[in-house]
Specification:
216 residues; alpha/beta; TIM Barrel; five-stranded parallel β-sheet; four-stranded mixed β-sheet; 6 helices; 31% helix; globular; binds zinc ion; Glyco_hydro/deAcase_b/a-brl; hydrolase; NODB_dom
Length: 216
């Protein structure tokens, strides 16, 4: 059996005193990841510094909406989509990947029609964003005791896990070293790249997009 693959992604930061410690853990483990940042958090200079530190360390920076409040499919007007996407992209600035990584707000990690609106999809295509979802949400922010078990079950259960965990207070930090150790013990490999199965749009085209991921 081929080794399992795991792509770690850290959402909803940067968070001072959390993201910096996660960067140290990843550095020690030699793991490169993606940080999907919330735009309005970057107006805090300390948080913006941590985004730069992550970028300097070789992690990728992705856009995870500006307010992270109402999913794009739950508020379908074009202006809302543009603000949520572009106000964040502007703050990421030159730290963006050339392929412009964007992850919609899932509202508790859910996959469904609330993820995108038609206006949001059209914009992501026109501006050539790489729109990325996930296939592993172990629930670090709501299940401090159980999330590593959940994560390991998800890693064992599929060939390539794209895992959403969080660099927030009460997120994954406390048990991240344990997760890394257990994934390593399983013989799985950490990847920075993202499989096409969770890429909705790329370079102006749809990839694994489905009508079930967009509001009418
Ligand atoms: Zn999020």
């Amino acid at each position: 059996m081929a080794a399992k693959q795991v792509t770690l992604t850290f959402d909803n930061g940067p968070t001072p005193h959390v993201t910096d410690r996660i960067l140290e853990i990843l550095d020690r483990a030699g793991i490169k990841t993606t940080f999907f940042v919330i735009g309005q958090r970057l107006d805090d200079a300390a948080a913006a510094d941590l985004m730069r530190a992550a970028h300097t360390a070789g992690h990728w920076i992705g856009n995870h909406t500006f307010t992270h409040s109402v999913a794009l499919g739950d508020r379908t007007d074009r202006d809302y989509a543009l603000r949520e996407i572009e106000d964040t992209q502007q703050r990421i600035g030159s730290l963006t990947r050339p392929e412009k990584l964007f992850r919609p707000y899932g509202n508790d990690g859910l996959i469904g029609r609330h993820l995108l609106s038609r206006a949001a999809l059209d914009h992501l295509l026109a501006e050539r964003y790489t729109t990325i979802t996930w296939n592993s949400v172990p629930g670090d922010w709501k299940d401090a005791d159980g999330w590593v078990e959940t994560a390991m079950a998800q890693v064992r259960g599929q060939d390539w896990s794209v895992m959403v965990i969080h660099d927030i207070e009460a997120g994954c930090l406390a048990r991240l070293p344990e997760l890394i150790q257990r994934v390593t013990d399983l013989g799985a490999t950490f990847e920075q790249t993202i499989p096409r199965s969770v890429i909705l749009t790329e370079a102006g085209r749809t990839v694994s997009m489905s009508p079930d991921l967009m509001a009418d």
